[in-house]
Amino acid sequence: MHKKSPDTFSQTNDAAIFMRHAIALARRAWGKTHPNPLVGALIVESGHIVAEGWHTRAGEAHAEIAALRALGRRPKPGSTLYVTLEPCCTHGRTGACTQAIIEAGISQVVAGAIDPFPAHAGRGFDILRAAGIALTTGICKAECEDLNLLFNHRMTHGGTPFIALKTATTLDGRIATRTGQSQWITGCEARADVMRWRRYFPAIATSSTTAIGDNPRLTSRIPGNAVEELCPLRFVFDRRLRLPKHPGLQLFTDNFHERTTIVTRANTPALAALSHESSRIWALPGEDDATFFQAFKARCVQENIDGVWVEGGGTFLGAWLKAGMADYLFHYTAPKILADADALPAFVGTARDALADALELHELHHTVLGADFLTRGKIITPAGTPEAPRQQDSPATGGKK
Asked: Using CA atoms, how far apart are residues 40 and 399, in angstroms rounded to an integer?
């Protein structure tokens, strides 16, 4: 975070352009702020960006404070603060941003999204208005909200983790040939985008079938001067405990093996024999997929894990859909056709006789990635409306703290 030379937007006062620059600032902390949101801010004087800031991680300065510190002086009269999320108005580890804005003498605040944390949720805006600060809201609102899929979900769904399914298919919806060959359906641009999203989520999950069959690393590998590899928490769903027979898998032998957890049923007979194993194990209750996945989500709440990226085959992903436990879908599509009824489908497990019973995506985003295409959005019920939010009375960690 630093002072900004007044050249980038020196000839424009376009609020959307300034806000999109603030969004780009927020993304510099991509995947590093959990359980807090991504937030970017900048200060504009006479049409020039003079300072900028972003929230780097939980416990560190909020974006507004970082921008004010980067300015290093009192803002000039008529100055405007652009921020992607409503300034917080409660005193957490870093103090209330509304108070800092008022004391700094900022004349106008332009904000993108409302903070869904119940203790904020518009109250920060009310405080700024009451202090005589001119306020404009909703600039690039959808783009600002899209920065914080996990945080927004946790604040509006009782603190539960955001479960996102990922699949990559041919145009006819196949993830592999009839022999199981799947590398590579999509091209390098799409695979790089997967790595970027893996970095956004604090945890990634797959099935024991995928772990044994593909021996994946489940890390985020971003090319640069040197390939940077980061590892989220890794969950492998193994209800029959087959994995101990495959100790050589990368998930249990690489430099990040301590971040791998086996998720199994509490009543699995083979569980007792694993008491001496070093691998982490979550033994969860649940007689069917719905209760088992619900127990997993409840454990994630206890561990303060606010989002899980789920990869796997059609049976595993289909189980999440059938149980109604998936919130979001990332669907990468390649311009290829197998035209083979025995090729492996992206999702299996339900029988739907009518199109009216089909699951649908809401709040869609479409991205072209080289020759491939990404469609992503919230999964909604066949009735056509999203699952009713379960408002949390007292989130464990709220707002930008």
From this structure: 14
The token pair at 200 is 């956004």
The amino acid at residue 132 is G
In degrees rounded to 5, what are phi and psi of residue 327?
-100, -25
Contacts of 320 (CB under 8 A, 6+ apart): 163, 165, 289, 293, 310, 326
- 10-residue block means of pLDDT along the chain (401 residues)? 42 78 97 94 94 93 95 94 93 80 94 88 91 94 96 93 97 91 90 95 96 93 76 94 91 93 89 64 92 96 96 95 95 95 91 87 96 96 50 40 43
Distance CA 335, CA 190 (A): 12
Here the tokens at position 314 are 């059609």
* CA 205 and chain centroid, separation: 14
Query: In degrees to the nearest 10, what's the CA dihedral of 138, 329, 358, 349?
Result: -160
- Answer whether 384's CB lies under 8 Å from 390's CB: no
Rounded CA-CA distance 394/171 in Å is: 44
Amino acid letter, 272: A
Q: Which helix (H) or strand (E) holds 163?
A: strand 162-169
C-beta atoms surrounding 179 within 10 Å: 9
List residues with catalytic annotation: 64
Cα radius of gyration (the chain): 23
Number of Cβ within 10 Å of residue 223's Cβ equals 10
Q: What is the DSSP string of 296-331?
A: HHHHHHHTT--EEEEE--HHHHHHHHHHT---EEEE
